[in-house]
Amino acid sequence: MRKLVPSLFLFAALSSPAWAGADVGGYFRVMTRPDLVGGDGKLGYWNLYGRLLNEGPYGAVELKLDVLERQPTSRELWTDLHVKVEGGSIAGADAGNGGLGNLRLSQVYVQAGNLAINGVTWRMGTLESNFGDLGLYDMRLAQVLTDTVGVSARYEGGVVDALIGVGDAGYTLRPDRYNSIVSPGGTLRVRAGGHVELGAGAQAYLEPEVVGNRNAPYTTPGLSYDDYVRRDFVADYAEENPGESTVVPRPGPTSASSYKGVFYLGFGSLGPLTWNNLFGSYTVRHPDSYVTESYNGVDYDLYVAGLTDERTVLLLGDELQLRLVPERLDLVVGALYGLHRDADNNIAPSDDDRRYWSAVARAQVYLSPVVHLLGEGSYAEERSHNGKQWRNHYDSLFANSQDPDDPLALQFGDADVRTTIQGKGGLVLNPLGPGIYTRPSLRILYGIQWSSQNNAFGNSYVESLDQYNYLYPAEVSADEVERHVHQLVALEAEVWF
User: Cα–Cα distance between 163 and 185 in angstroms, integer?
Assistant: First the structure.
């Protein structure tokens, strides 16, 4: 009920007469994908294999209200208000069943132009800024200030755009453990003749030392990464220090910082090349706060800033859009590479210490302006730096239990590589004509996935191998419990407005 009440107030506010003249834009995606093999209606785990059939329902509505209307050629003051509501749940299409508690007020900001400096747009509120989308993956790799609330100034010229902003990112990075994290950032974009764009940006995160605030950065002395992963530090400390069994070492206060840099190169309008987007980002992730261990019925907070301050993420993505036969055949090819490193961790498989790459190609044949055929294929490889993260077989846990490379028994499965291949195709109806990204789009699709991992899709399968698992027959073979192939049929509607 507590989640529902704010949503009702939000809808009441946005439906007031003051918004009657507002401009409205948005996006909706809804689908049904009967999954007859026990899955959750998605072909694979995530968008590394392409967004198509790997995403759930979604909706977003953005409203813009002109408080002082902008005059295109005037230097008079103007101001407007932007509000965006979005969420990933629609009735009957996912487990949330369209509940209003699944919505969030993702952006609210006020803009003003020609205020003190002509040609500069000032913004107060949420500060999200990005260089564009990697469409086949539905990802934004080159973005800054997305997690920050504050103030920014943007200059938009014919050749050069520049942005600088500063605010607080504490509630985004640590919603339940807030501590102020000052975050400045900015971007610069240069255009050349409508054929080339080049952009770059950066953002920093600065968290000062605050003695006495449990949510500020601290480090518990003597805590190793092994202790952090296994969650047995307090028990071991109590055993080694019997006279202090109810106390852990006093944490030491510290400060924390992190940063990210982004890059963008776009070029196109050259023959069959419609456009090519190349995005990149490098992030030094902000340290975590603390974890909690229980011992003898008492909870102890262990501070891990010193164990989570060497995590980095490198992302590169490219998307090439080609018009091979005008009004008859378009092709989009995308590629994505990710490198996640954690210099503190050399013992346990983790999503913070891996690398992956994938390639996706989508072709659309226009049988008529409205009726199209779509075909898409993808190949992806994910590799764990610290050993066996994935289970290729139904008995992988037993197969790995005596692994000499895993004396701490921290590895999860029997493979350090996951390979995934997907194919998708079907009929598309685009009322507004040709274009792979033309919307609205109505689709009837079939998709198939092969993965080296067993059951590599969201599911509710019982994974227990004990004798009381009665959901399998008494005697089964490996072939009866392994599924490396997953298939789906989907009816989908997608619209931008």
Answer: 8
